[in-house]
Amino acid sequence: xxKRTRRIVIYPGSFDPVTNGHLDIVRRAARLFxxxxxxxxxxxxxxxxxxxxxRRDLLRLSLKAEIRRGHVSVDVFSGLLxxxxxxxxxxxxxxxxxxxxxxxxxxxxxxxxxxxxxxxETVFLMPDEKYTYLSSTLLKxxxxxxxxxxxxxxxxxxPIIRKKIAAxxxx
Length: 171
Ligand code: ADP
Prior knowledge:
With 171 residues, the protein is an alpha/beta fold. The protein has a single domain (8-132), classed as HUPs (Rossmann fold). Helix content is 43%, strand content 17%. It is built from seven helices and five strands. α5 (100-116) links the parallel β4 and β5. The structure holds adenosine-5'-diphosphate.
């Protein structure tokens, strides 16, 4: 049988910060592809709480085991996503779909990316139901208000996110 080429997928996003919903998508993608590159986007239009490198490091901390096994890597990127995907040798981009409300924007992006580069497909994966109402924004809001985020983010990240929120609080 001819040797199959390694199937690489890019999972792009802001990840400000990573949540268990994102991690669920990474693990599902890793079962379908040989390698997942989680790519933190340097989108200057958004004003993230965490810097680009901090967001990358939180992902690396959360995906230590998968990275060690060689199934996953974490990177940062700027510029056109499809160009970055080709540079990485990826055949696809994966995005998470939580609800119909995600669909419209994701659909537009996927078609625009295909228009830019037809060799890169977009695939959508749905997380476990318990993550369908979870977002980085809600996670930060709950922590800001002193609520319980158990099950929404790896426990090791909670004090780090709390500290960052406290440091960014307006006087
Ligand atoms: P972006 O700013 O690119 O939307 P996000 O970090 O918010 O970046 O999300 C990255 C991707 O992960 C998107 O496809 C988003 O729909 C998906 N995603 C975000 N939260 C969840 C979740 N709880 N479950 C599944 N997918 C999610």
